[in-house]
Specification:
The protein is mostly beta strands and 940 residues long. It contains 14 helices and 49 strands. Helix content is 9%, strand content 44%.
Length: 940
């Protein structure tokens, strides 16, 4: 029969659902009563197969039952609602984000970044982008048996990236029959429609099985204008704070005054124009932007196994997925002065007869991006077991191949040479049409279409305005970006029994891996040449390979003695040799002590690393008009205004300028000039040290009560810092770091930062620690069976430093932005016969952000050691709690019907003007409304 430890671990997994102590990679392990042979199980986080499921490592499991009890349709939705999850790396509320990673689903454990969380499928690595991102959307939800989340460093077991933890998706196997599921959802506002159709089928025989899953998923868009927190940039404030003067109403600068066309009017003579104000010539970009971007995905997954002999099996997984993501942002805010282009004095549309600069937002042609990616992943392995000298051994050898191809199509950016030609000299020809060139030297319409950037929206004729299809065809090219990544891996592993010791079996695991990563991402030629208004960017391309070997040893020390029902130590180490930076060795120690049957005390210490990615080593440079840029020296809003260091660079009355080269109306704004970012081929790996101490308590005197408490700590050094303009200026003017001051220059005429280059570098550290608490209790009554669970994380520390300068203070980010002090999930399940109900509660603690407005600034005198004496006003917003409800009925015809609502009370989170993980004044990880759904599953 199963030993007591296995029985207890299985009970924990059932009781907790989403907070079990261990997770295994083989499903069918139970033995019949009286049968001595018990199948050995490989637990996530260890390479040694064992009959003991409880380990020294903190592992959380999301079971199929948990998946069914929630109203989510994707793996990432489940993971992001764990208390250990951080903010979304790329939320669907960030339409301004671009590049190869847009549209994917990425997990971010402990808020340490998605590149520091390793994702596995059935214990094997998922492919990566050139940025090191692993897309979770490739697996159909119907094929997921469970998700194991190892909340501990695991580089000694799995190599690079496993610093914050490991997510291991275990797929269904040995399935027989057919299961068909339909899901639909929609917000109260009638938008954000979600549709999902999935199918799982399989056959199984004496020697093998095949399980196939397929899924089609479509998630509709939500527009920013349809929610109060995103309809303007700064909800609750007046027009100057929420509109831009670089609007759809074309304007020109004459005698240091901006003029816009009167509406209605002809936009031809100077009398048709008037001085621009926010009332007559501004626009709200949110009116054209997505709040939640649409997404569509199709996926197919096949898992098979076949017994070649009694002791050798062939296993294989094949996955194919297609993903399409779309996004829209407001038309491009063109500013001719940035490109040295003017509306020619000889243009037919020039109202003053002098060269003038102009601005015009392309409202008629919003910027759109469609990202299409297809991914093929194939794994194959031989695995088996044998006995030698009365000792058992398990082995496997095989390979993994993954390939992703990306095509991105952009529309809505202008071609700069075409702008110059279209706004150059033009005249009214004999046919009554405005033609490029002059009467003496005309330019044919095949080469140039004249454009009036000052006309549109009731001012001037449609012809030659931006609403003219011929003008659009001439000015707006379609840009194509292409990318491809490949992962090739070979592996061999063996584990088994070395000797029987008095306290149990001394077991081991040894293995080796070879992995090669190649990747490239090529922007359109116009983007690379900087001839389009899209942000200039260079091509990324490169490759690297790594050869690795590891060893693991599990040493039982005591068993069934006073004060120790069991005591064991687990040791592991891994050597990695990279073609880029060289070699590294990382080790791990784990201790399990069970003083009594009811209590397991455990602890780990581990080293970890993250290798530089292809894009961070070989990425091309790119440009961006930085949003939310804050200049600490601004005389009105700057936190260092008037300081001695600021006055070295700017006058006392200096004002930061925003787009349109006008003073900002708040502390943060989009820059009027682009900044540059790039890669660093000399990057070294990040290194980490992780520690955990905790216990698992299952009191025998209280049936079905389980308590898990873990303290954890992670410190990452030599961090690959994704620098930012804000951090550079803050380090310079507040932190006093002169090396950072040397990274930018200012325009001598207006003192704005006009040249700034940033990228990645090894510098500083990040250190975080906290406490995880999980509780589960189940009981039966005459009114039905109840189960209650709680999963909470309390953050003790989140300190960071982006420089190696010893004088720079360490900054604490706990409770700031999207780094919550406390996250908690509570669940209550009731079942009675064929009926069941689930109530879920998701809690997020209060948050703090920089003050953007004086009347919403709870702590105007905020000062800490790391602000170096500077007052940096902060505003605190309250906590947020979302409630979810689901009702389920199991029908007599082998089906299940569920209806429910996520955020059933239609809770809205607080306004946050810093826009954490979002383009808007709202946290990108929060619900954006009440979403009703239904799910119907039919089994055959």
């Amino acid at each position: 029969m199963l030993n007591n430890k296995v029985s207890k671990a299985v009970r924990l997994a059932i009781a907790f659902g989403s907070a079990s102590t261990a997770a295994f990679s083989v499903n069918s392990f139970a033995a019949e009563e009286g049968v001595e042979k018990v199948e050995r199980i490989q637990v996530t986080g260890s390479r040694i197969r064992s009959t003991d499921l409880e380990t020294a490592q903190p592992i959380q499991t999301i079971s199929r039952e948990d998946i069914a009890n929630q109203g989510f349709t994707s793996v990432i939705d489940l993971l992001e609602n764990m208390s250990a999850a951080g903010s979304p790396p790329i939320s669907r509320s960030e339409p301004l984000v671009s590049g190869e990673n847009v549209g994917g689903s990425y997990v971010n454990l402990r808020n340490l970044g998605t590149g520091r969380t390793l994702v596995l499928i059935n214990g094997k690595r998922l492919g990566i982008t050139t940025s090191g991102y692993q897309d979770l959307s490739a697996v159909p939800m119907g094929m997921v048996e469970r998700i194991d989340v190892l909340k501990d460093g695991a580089s000694a077991m799995y190599g690079s990236d496993a610093m914050a933890g490991v997510v291991n998706i275990i797929t269904r196997k040995n399935f027989e029959g057919l299961e068909f599921t339909v899901y639909g959802a929609e917000y109260d506002e009638g938008d954000g429609e979600k549709k999902n159709v999935s199918m799982v089928t399989g056959i199984s025989g004496d020697r093998g099985s095949i399980t196939l899953g397929a899924e089609w998923r479509d998630e509709g868009d939500v527009w920013a204008k349809d929610r109060s927190f995103s309809e303007v940039s700064y909800p609750g404030y007046d027009i100057p704070n929420n509109r831009t003067l670089v609007g759809q109403y074309g304007r020109f600068n004459y005698n240091d005054q901006w003029y816009v066309a009167k509406r209605p009017g002809n936009a031809s003579s100077f009398d048709d124009f008037e001085p621009q104000t926010y009332e007559n010539g501004s626009s709200n970009s949110s009116e054209q932007m997505h709040l939640e971007t649409p997404l569509s995905a199709r996926s197919l997954y096949i898992s098979s196994n076949y017994a070649l002999t009694d002791d050798i099996n062939f296993t294989s997984d094949i996955g194919y997925s297609e993903r399409q993501a779309k996004r829209q942002v407001a038309g491009y805010p063109y500013q001719s002065a940035s490109d040295g282009i003017v509306l020619s004095a000889d243009s037919h549309f020039n109202p003053v007869g002098e060269d003038v600069s102009f601005t015009r937002r392309g409202w008629e042609v919003p910027r759109t991006t469609e990202s299409n990616q297809d991914t093929l992943r194939f794994t194959a392995a031989l695995e088996g077991s044998f006995e030698l000298a009365d000792r058992y051994f398990d082995w496997d050898v095989g390979g993994v191949y993954s390939k992703s191809s990306t095509i991105q199509v952009d529309n809505g950016n202008l071609y700069k040479p075409a702008i110059k030609a279209a706004t150059g000299p033009s005249f009214l020809n004999s046919a009554g049409q405005v033609q490029c060139g002059t009467e003496a030297d005309p330019i044919s319409s095949a080469e140039c279409i004249a454009w009036n950037p000052l006309a549109g929206f009731g001012a001037g004729p449609v012809e030659n305005s931006l609403a003219d299809p011929n003008v659009q065809d001439f000015l707006y090219p379609t840009l194509h970006y292409r990318g491809e990544t490949q992962t090739t891996m070979y592996f061999a592993n063996i584990s088994g029994l070395i000797a029987e010791l008095p306290a149990g079996g001394l077991t081991f695991a040894l293995g080796g891996e070879y992995r090669k990563e190649t990747g490239q991402y090529n922007p359109d030629a116009l983007a690379q040449l900087g001839e389009s208004t899209t942000l200039a960017s260079g091509a990324t391309g490169g490759k690297y390979d790594v050869t690795e070997a590891y060893g693991e040893l599990n040493i039982p020390i005591l068993s069934d003695v006073a004060g120790a029902k069991s005591l064991s130590v687990n040791l592991a180490t891994r050597y990695s040799d990279y073609s880029t930076f060289g070699d590294t060795t990382n080790s791990k120690v784990g201790i399990e002590w069970r003083p009594v049957d009811d209590l397991l005390v455990r602890g780990t210490w581990s080293e970890g690393f993250r290798a530089p990615t292809i894009s961070s080593l070989y990425g091309g440079s790119s440009q961006t008009f930085t949003t939310g840029f804050i200049d600490p020296c601004d005389s009105v809003y700057g936190t260092a205004a008037g300081s001695a260091r600021c006055l070295q660079d700017v006058p006392a009355n200096y004002r930061q300028l925003q787009q349109g080269f006008v003073p900002t109306t708040g502390p943060a704004a989009q820059t009027p000039v682009p900044f540059n970012s790039g890669s660093n081929e000399f990057l070294q790996p990040e290194e980490s040290t992780s520690k955990t101490i905790g216990f698992v308590y299952n009191p025998s005197y209280v049936e079905n009560l389980d308590i898990i408490l873990d303290w954890w700590s992670i410190k990452i050094t030599d961090t690959v810092v994704s620098d930012s303009p804000n951090e550079i200026l803050k380090d310079c003017y507040i932190g006093g770091d002169e090396s950072r001051c040397a990274m930018f220059s200012r325009d001598p005429s207006n003192s704005i930062v006009n040249d700034l280059t940033y990228g990645t570098r090894n510098a500083g550290f990040t250190e975080t620690s906290g406490i995880d608490l999980a509780l589960a209790y189940a009981f039966e009554t005459e009114f039905g069976d109840f189960r209650a669970t709680m999963d909470s994380t309390y953050l003790l520390k989140y300190d960071s430093k982006s420089t190696n300068e010893p004088e720079t203070k360490v900054e604490s980010d706990v409770g700031h932005g999207d780094i919550f002090r406390t996250r908690s999930s509570l669940g209550l399940n009731w079942s009675y016969g064929d009926f069941s109900a689930n109530w879920g509660i998701r809690y997020f603690s209060s948050m703090r952000e920089d003050c953007y407005f004086e009347d919403k600034c709870s702590n105007p005198d905020f000062e800490r050691d790391w602000t170096n004496g500077a007052i940096t006003p902060k505003n605190k917003v309250g906590s947020t709690t979302f409630n979810d409800l689901q009702l389920t009925y199991n029908t007599p015809w082998e089906s299940k019907l569920s209806i429910g609502a996520n955020n059933v009370f239609d809770k809205q989170g607080p306004i946050m003007y810093s826009g954490p993980s979002s383009t808007y004044s709202y946290y990108g990880g929060f619900d954006i409304g009440r979403q009703w759904y239904f799910r119907y599953s039919q089994s055959f």
